Amino acid sequence: MKIIEIYSEAKSPVFSFEFFPPKTVEGETKLKATIGELKKLNPGFVSVTYGAGGSTRDKTIEICTEIQTVYSIPSMCHFTCVGASKEEIKSILKSVENRGIHNIIALRGDPPKGEGKFTPPPSGFSNATELVEFIRQEKFSFCVAAGCYPEKHPDSPTLESDTHYLKQKVSAGVDILVTQLFFSNKVFVNFLERARNAGITSPILPGIMPITSYSQIQRFKEMADCEIPLDFINDLERVKDNPSEFMRVSLSYTIAQCRELLSMSPGIHFYTLNQSTATMEIMKALQK
Ligand SMILES: Cc1cc2nc3c(=O)[nH]c(=O)nc-3n(C[C@H](O)[C@H](O)[C@H](O)COP(=O)(O)OP(=O)(O)OC[C@H]3O[C@@H](n4cnc5c(N)ncnc54)[C@H](O)[C@@H]3O)c2cc1C
Questions:
Q1: Does the reported pTM lie above 0.85?
Q2: Where are the chain's structural domains?
Q3: For the segment 21-76, what is each residue's pLDDT rounded down to a tens digit?
Q4: Torsion angle, CA of 61/150/206/233, rounded to 10 degrees?
Q5: Which of 75, 191, 248, 263 is least surrounded by CB atoms within 10 angstroms?
Q6: Residue 109 zone, left/alpha/beta (φ > 0; ψ -120 to 50; rest)
Q7: What CATH code would you report for 3-286?
Q8: Which residues line ligand 1 (CB under 6 A)?
């Protein structure tokens, strides 16, 4: 089923989960257990990431297919422009479509580590907008999602330029937007206002990643270039040597953040890192 239809038919908030393709057999076993657990929460859909440089391409497609056939959950395949020509992209998209996957999140992808600037592959695309245009021109029938950045994409010089290009991307044929992770709802509120003022009307799903260990704080800040409110960091710092207290403090913050977000968005997309515990706890509280 197409995600956009899931949203338009939903009578209550739609929750969705992101996974990544594991590299080991143990990781695969764990992912299956996680999907089995999170299926109990009746997700609207789940998504599977596309490794840097297209490194997990076949695995991503395989897991998306399995999620639909074995677990009966609609899947969304992440897809990037990295390392592929137009012709290669066309053939990969055909194979995704042929497997009955109806949803794709069309992304530019990041440059390889150490390269500051994104260089388009020969006969490939320079940004996600070109990929979205191509998907529409070639008449693929996907529901097309795209990424967006409440605190602006790191390559963007200003919030205004980021909003301008986001509007272009949506106009090229995007049905739904999923945000980069963020921890401050004020940032999301400001972003929503900018997007709506720019004429972007598509649903915008907040992407939320619970912090489950102290070391993740710095990692998430760097990975997503996002602000983590100082009070929250201080609260986590106080309990950093007590794992159960750490989880309690962290998840209370995320639960409160999600409750507020549900008053302004049609659902929440959780970045699960292939773990079920934190997401289960948050969802239990939200569904009370
Ligand atoms: C929800 C989500 C899921 C993701 N999943 C993955 C994944 O599975 N695998 C992975 O490798 N990465 C993933 N990423 C990361 C993403 O690939 C990077 O953030 C990448 O740097 C940008 O991708 P994009 O599609 O947002 O790029 P774009 O929309 O192309 O934007 C990239 C930059 O270019 C600018 N820009 C856009 N169009 C133009 C133009 N015409 N002229 C000048 N500048 C322009 C934008 O403002 C922005 O600064 C994900 C990100 C998000 C938010």
A1: yes
A2: 3-286
A3: 999 999 999 999 999 999 999 999 999 999 987 778 899 999 999 999 999 999 99
A4: 110
A5: 263
A6: left
A7: 3.20.20.220
A8: 49-50, 52, 78, 80, 105, 107-110, 127-129, 147, 153, 155-156, 162, 165, 169, 178, 180, 207
